[in-house]
């Protein structure tokens, strides 16, 4: 199974530990294409964002799940920014399970929309993630694009 990791660019380096943990469990893990850009500031990222968004959307589209590493940022616990929100929206539309590291932020204006996407907070409880994915795909055929 494939899982695409998503997060704010600021936390790209944190994704390596998550990636390693999931790969040890047998998952294929897809990362944002930030390896060449994560050192840039957010303003610089905006100039190249369009191509990165499309590339990451393609990864999500071929995944069995997305995992949003929503760390605390800008004084907001469990921050979910614009890009992660877009990525969650795509996953929801494609009926791909959405997992979160932390709870949905309380003080974010689009909280109700985030709740409506039905993400599941698993933290780093990989056994729970395994169980949920197993049950989810037992009842649905796996689309060929995600094999």
Structure, explained:
The chain has 5 helices and 5 strands; from the N terminus they run E-H-E-H-E-H-E-H-E-H. With 147 residues, the protein is an alpha/beta fold. It has one domain: Rossmann fold. A 5-stranded parallel sheet has the order 2-1-3-4-5, with helices on both faces. Helix 2 packs parallel to helix 3 (82-93).
Structure summarized in a few sentences:
Strands 2-1-3-4-5 form a five-stranded parallel sheet, sandwiched between helices. Helix content is 41%, strand content 12%.
Keywords:
5 strands, Rossmann fold, alpha/beta, single chain, 5-stranded parallel beta sheet, about 150 residues, globular
The CATH C-level name is Alpha Beta
How many strand segments? 5
Q: Mind summarizing the main beta sheet?
A: 5 strands, parallel
| Global Rg | 15 Å
By secondary-structure content and strand pairing, the structural class works out as alpha/beta
List strands and helices in order, with pairings.
Elements lengths: L1 E5 L8 H10 L3 E3 L11 H20 L3 E4 L13 H12 L4 E3 L10 H6 L3 E2 L4 H13 L9
Parallel strand pairs: 1-2, 1-3, 3-4, 4-5
Helix pairs in contact: 2-3
């Amino acid at each position: 199974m494939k899982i695409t990791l998503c997060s704010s660019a600021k936390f790209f380096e944190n994704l390596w530990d998550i990636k390693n943990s999931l790969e040890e469990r047998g998952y294929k893990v897809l990362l944002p294409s930030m390896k060449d850009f994560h050192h840039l500031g957010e303003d610089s990222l905006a100039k190249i964002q369009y191509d990165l968004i499309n590339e990451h959307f393609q990864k999500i589209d071929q995944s069995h799940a997305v995992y949003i590493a929503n760390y605390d940022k800008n004084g907001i616990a469990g921050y979910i920014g614009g890009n992660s929100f877009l990525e969650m929206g795509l996953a929801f539309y494609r009926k791909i399970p959405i997992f979160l590291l932390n709870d949905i932020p309380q003080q974010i204006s689009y909280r109700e929309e985030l709740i409506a996407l039905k993400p599941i907070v698993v933290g780093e409880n990989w056994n729970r993630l395994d169980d949920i994915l197993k049950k989810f795909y037992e009842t649905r055929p796996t689309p060929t694009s995600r094999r």
